[in-house]
Amino acid sequence: MNKKFYITTPIYYPSGAAHIGHAYCTTLCDVMARYKRMRGYDTYFLTGTDEHGEKIQKNAALANKSPQEYVDEIASNFQKLWKEMYISNDDFIRTTQERHIKVVQDVFSKLLAKGDIYLGKYKGWYCTPCEAFWTDTQVGEDHLCPDCHRPVHTAEEEAYFYKANQYVPMLMDILNNNPKFVTPIERKNEMLNTFIKPGLDDLCVSRTSFNWGIPVKENPKHVVYVWLDALTNYISALGYDSNNDSLFQKYWQDPDTEIVHVIGADISRFHVIYWPMFLNSLGLRQPNRIIVHGLLMMKDGKMSKSKGNVISPYPLIERYGVDAVRYYLVREINFGSDGQFTPEQFVERINNDLANNIGNLLNRTVSMINKYFNGTIPSFESNVLPQDKPFEELINKTIQEYEISLDDIRPTSGFASVMEMLSYANKYIEETTPWVLSKENKVKELQSVMSHLAYAIFVGMILLKPVLVTKSELALSQLGLDYHNLNYEDIHNHNILNGAHVNKGEQLFPRLDSALEVDYIKSLMVK
Ligand code: MSP
Hints:
The chain has 527 residues and is α/β, with parallel strands linked by helices.
């Protein structure tokens, strides 16, 4: 059976330059896409930009640009960043593209024809930064947006409404029968308690007070509400409702495709409540999983341009390399919880995990194999030293834990297990003292230590390949292997390195001078 996997990031608002928070979500998805490809899945990975709405129109005016000029510039900034970060997306959807506009108009028409959308009048509150409508109760006496806590403004206009309430039983069914539809579970409960149980109002799905959006075909003074426009990207990019819908048939409609949307906690309401309803209205299948990650915060709260605490990934990539930035992002923040970016933790993570557990371990191992065996990796033999068995067991357990975690889309814990195993490899050197074995001429024991170390690094590098997109291949080539000739299943082959010749190369992750680097990163965070 051909296993298929479709993974998406949210499409980002090009309302400001891409920052490390966007890079966080995209890297998580990239790592998952790369893992699935490595495991033989037919994988499709989508990202893009969400280019309509009042906020974009206002920002463009402030920048003295037309909205299209404005979004073109920022969308290309996002694309450039993804290239630099080795993001392996198969497509990049922009909501101002014709292929998307047409689908959104057709979707609107279908919902209208079906009677799920009707024309009425909106009177209430609107939060422009969140592009969200709120009721009196929701904004409270202070008139603040319940999501971002910024002031909302009143909005009164003729508008189309989507009859959300009728689909609550359908939604409850999905949520109750699919325990993993929304994870972590706290996010699902939050949706249930805060929005679904108190009763849903019909959702306003068009605006007339500005025009930067997709016109409603039947009534062009209305533009389609930006969230209905944006959510549709997940199917418009696949060619839904177009002349060529083969990707849509393959990656959406086929029940064998696992469909995963990864989103930030800030946008769960739209994905967990309205997206399943829209799909249901269209008679389409549901995604398998909506995975909600936490936000990457700064010491003084959420990253925002106005606070001047936005950190760009570019200077970090330039100074520390793409692998280090990617690794930091997927490992440091406990998946599902909010995390805080601090220069100290960034440097510490690189030093502990990458410099010590990988760079130093590889360097030591290759040097010893050169010194004791003229660069040839000795044959693997099991259980020679008392320390061997526990090490072998740990490697097997690591592979299992890694696969379980990544299959369940919990990348952080999978990579943490690998790093623990590599850290143990350093300990294994201290415990087996190869320099003593050499002095005492215990060749068989020394062979065992070297081959175990090489095998552990080999396994670690394959498992970390989805994150360490450049350095894992280099590490493997220092062990005398060409990544392109390897299969994932080779991780179970203890003999794969027998007789390979190591090539001592550059130190892959040199240790950073903490004080110096912390100061450098702090200087990037100043406005
Ligand atoms: N355009 C909408 C999404 C439409 S999807 C159909 C939007 N865009 S956004 O650019 O404001 O944010 C999108 C996502 O970017 C968030 O849900 C989150 O995944 C990611 N992040 C933006 N800032 C972030 C952090 N500070 N930390 C982690 N992720 C962040 O909402």
